[in-house]
Design a protein that fits this description.
Order of helices and strands: EEEHEHHEHEHEEHHEHEH
CATH class: Alpha Beta
Largest sheet: 8 strands, mixed
Structural class: alpha/beta
CATH superfamily: Alpha/Beta hydrolase fold, catalytic domain
Number of domains: 1
Strand order of the largest sheet: 1-2-4-3-5-6-9-10
Helix content: 25-40%
Radius of gyration: 17 Å
CATH topology: Rossmann fold
CATH architecture: 3-Layer(aba) Sandwich
Shape: globular
Number of helices: 9
Strand content: 15-25%
């Protein structure tokens, strides 16, 4: 297998990406991996996961959203203004851009392209896929957000958020206080219908595109209720008993992959491989 550094065309900014190719020759199915809120493509299990896909004969494209806060250093949030200026509409659009770019890569089977998103990334890939159902073979979410309305205190803190222009959130890993701009709130208010995640999942299932929601029962960040909401929209729900939001995986990645992570991988391969 091999790893290639790519720069994907995004919206107004390029997307930094890595493509993991399997050793076997010929066109391979592709899994496009989208990180979550305060995440990045090199976080925790994502490089390992891409390697596991390649070992199974799948190509894997992992990428950074342009406004995730990561700059030249792949693990440091130095682009704080970009993070503050981010919106859901932007991320859904960038997931769609990654989908288009990935399907056009040489050595990729464009009829077997899957989107995989963690946490907020799960919502973004569902929204992107619903805009281009013919371009995807299926969507998988890990601890995927089923509705944006409950995030970051949209209801409870909207007035304060709007008045001061931002909310502050703490990055547990780095200790940084990061600002989420009021533009995120305004984007959601302006585009609620287009940002309806469960409606996107329902539309995909109706179009014959399978959705698999993999959820840990001990997840306190995105509780199991989100997985059940996606199941009500037609997704196949896979519950991993005792798994938390990151499937028991810290950053940096440990020497031995946790069992909960291996279970999530196994459920994903079941959804992707024939």
């Amino acid at each position: 297998m091999s790893v290639e550094r790519l720069t994907l065309p995004g919206l107004d900014l390029p997307l930094d990406a890595r493509l993991h190719r399997p050793s076997a020759a010929g066109s391979a199915p592709l899994v496009i991996l989208a990180h979550g809120f305060k995440g990045f493509m090199d976080w925790g299990p994502w490089p390992w996961l891409a390697e596991q896909f390649a070992a199974q004969g799948l190509a894997c494209l992992r990428f950074n959203f342009s406004h995730n806060g990561i700059g030249a250093d792949p693990e440091v949030f130095t682009e704080q203004q970009r993070f503050q200026d981010n919106t859901f509409t932007r991320e859904a659009g960038e997931a769609g851009a990654a989908l288009r770019a990935g399907a056009a890569l040489p050595g990729v089977d464009p009829t077997r392209v899957f989107l995989l998103g963690h946490s907020l990334g799960g919502a973004m890939v569902l929204l992107a896929a619903a805009q281009a159902p013919d371009a995807v073979a299926g969507v998988i979410t890990w601890a995927g957000v089923a509705g944006l309305e409950g995030l970051l205190g949209f209801r409870e803190q909207a007035d304060t958020w709007r008045r001061q222009g931002f909310l502050e959130v703490r990055n547990a890993r780095t200790g940084q206080i990061m600002r989420v701009g009021a533009c995120l709130l305004e984007d959601w208010e302006r585009h609620r219908e287009a940002l309806d995640v469960t409606a996107a999942a329902r539309a995909l299932v109706r179009a014959g595109k399978p959705v698999t929601a993999i959820q840990g029962t001990a997840d306190t960040s995105v509780p199991p209720s989100h997985g059940h909401r996606l199941a009500e929209a037609g997704a196949r729900l896979v519950l991993i008993d005792g798994a938390d939001h990151t499937f028991s995986t810290p950053h940096p990645f440990p020497p031995a992959p946790p069992d909960h992570l291996r279970q999530a991988l196994a459920a994903t391969l079941k959804a992707v491989l024939p």
